């Protein structure tokens, strides 16, 4: 079967791409449902954009990518889309926008857009044997309907990052990049909690407070959460992307500088 565009991965990126690609579009995912990571995002309410979103907020080996992407599609475009689908939202803190109801509304919106564009969605499907011949991509597709050979003018690999394999994440994109001889930048975990092998924060486990987390000249003022295994909470997750093993991580537990005054008052 021939398509103008074949997209591997029905996550946030794959569905958005399917809605906008135009022509005959195929979307393939090995999961049983699309957008599973969106469903669990933002604690089930999906932090779908940020009012203060700028290219500088993105970490990339190629900073111009975010500039060009955000010049064409901004947070205001996405807010407009969410409004058109009647999804109620609120600003939680620091410009972070969440659904009032459920992240499932964002999944339903993207799925609806994809369907409206007439995309052919194949779930529970395995794609393999990627190759390019005569300017056309081809691969084998195996799903409940059996085996088929797919050809497409364009191949979009939107299989996401490797985190949470239980939710369907695989390294397929890296295998395809290797097969086609594409250079891949080294990857590492980002937006992750810190774990300490000595359990030093275990006695404080469950305590959350506003703090400033700092590493390598970058700082985030948000909540930190002590856990049995170490440090979590938004400030820890954010700063983790700027920290590498061996670097110093500093925490200011009185970022507003009001502790002395509070102690005086308490005395
Ligand atoms: C707990 C958690 C909370 C989060 N909260 C937020 C939030 O509030 N706001 C926010 O913006 N981001 C949040 N994120 C990040 C967000 O979920 C991801 O950035 C986003 O899902 C990435 O979209 P994607 O389309 O690139 O990849 P994914 O959503 O991961 O989609 C990839 C798709 O490809 C499929 N796939 C993978 N391998 C194969 C294969 N070999 N064959 C076929 N299909 C394959 C997968 O099944 C999946 O459906 C959160 C992430 C997590 C883990």
Could you explain the architecture of this structure?
It is a single chain. It is built from 8 helices and 14 strands. It is of the alpha+beta class and 267 residues long. It has 2 domains: 2-46 and 102-179, FAD/NAD(P)-binding domain (3-Layer(bba) Sandwich); 194-266, Elongation Factor Tu (Ef-tu), domain 3 (Beta Barrel), CATH 2.40.30. A 6-stranded mixed β-sheet has the order 6-2-1-9-8-7. A 5-stranded antiparallel β-sheet has the order 10-13-12-11-14. Helix 1 runs parallel beside helix 5 (104-116). The longest helix is centred in the middle third of the chain and has 13 residues, at 104-116. The radius of gyration is 22 Å and the shape is elongated. The model has no long low-confidence stretch (mean pLDDT 96). The structure holds flavin-adenine dinucleotide. Flavin-adenine dinucleotide (FAD) binds at residues 8-14, 28-31, 36-38, 40-42, 46-47, 127, 158-160, 163-164, 168-170, 172.
**How much β-strand is present in the residues?**
25-35%
CATH architecture of the largest domain: 3-Layer(bba) Sandwich
Give me the count of strands.
14
Largest sheet entry = 6 strands, mixed
Helix content: 25-40%
Number of helices: 8
- Mean pLDDT, to the nearest integer, reads 96
Strand order of the largest sheet: 6-2-1-9-8-7
CATH topology of the largest domain: FAD/NAD(P)-binding domain
């Amino acid at each position: 079967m021939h398509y103008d565009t074949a997209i591997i991965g029905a996550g946030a990126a794959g569905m958005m791409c399917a809605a906008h690609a135009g022509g005959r579009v195929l979307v393939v995912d090995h999961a049983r449902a699309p957008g599973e990571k969106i469903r669990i995002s933002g604690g089930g309410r999906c932090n779908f954009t940020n009012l203060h979103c700028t290219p500088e907020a993105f970490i990339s080996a190629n900073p111009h990518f975010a500039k060009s992407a955000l010049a064409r599609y901004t947070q205001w475009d996405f807010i407009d889309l969410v409004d058109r689908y009647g999804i109620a939202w609120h600003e939680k803190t620091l410009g972070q926008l969440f659904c009032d109801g459920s992240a499932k509304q964002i999944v339903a919106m993207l799925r609806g857009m994809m369907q409206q564009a007439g995309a052919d969605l194949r779930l529970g499907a395995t794609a393999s044997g990627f190759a390019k011949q005569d300017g056309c991509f081809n691969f084998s597709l195996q799903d409940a309907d059996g085996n088929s050979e797919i050809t497409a003018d364009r191949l979009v690999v939107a299989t996401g990052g490797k985190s949470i394999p239980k939710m369907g994440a695989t390294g397929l994109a890296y295998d395809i990049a290797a097969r086609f001889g594409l250079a891949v930048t080294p990857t590492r975990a980002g937006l992750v909690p810190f774990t300490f092998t000595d359990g030093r924060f275990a006695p404080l486990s469950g305590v959350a407070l506003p703090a400033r987390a700092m590493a390598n000249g970058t700082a985030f003022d948000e909540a930190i959460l002590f856990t049995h295994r170490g440090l979590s909470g938004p400030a820890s997750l954010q700063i983790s992307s700027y920290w590498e093993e061996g670097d110093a991580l500093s925490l200011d537990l009185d970022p507003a500088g009001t502790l002395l005054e509070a102690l005086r008052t308490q005395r």
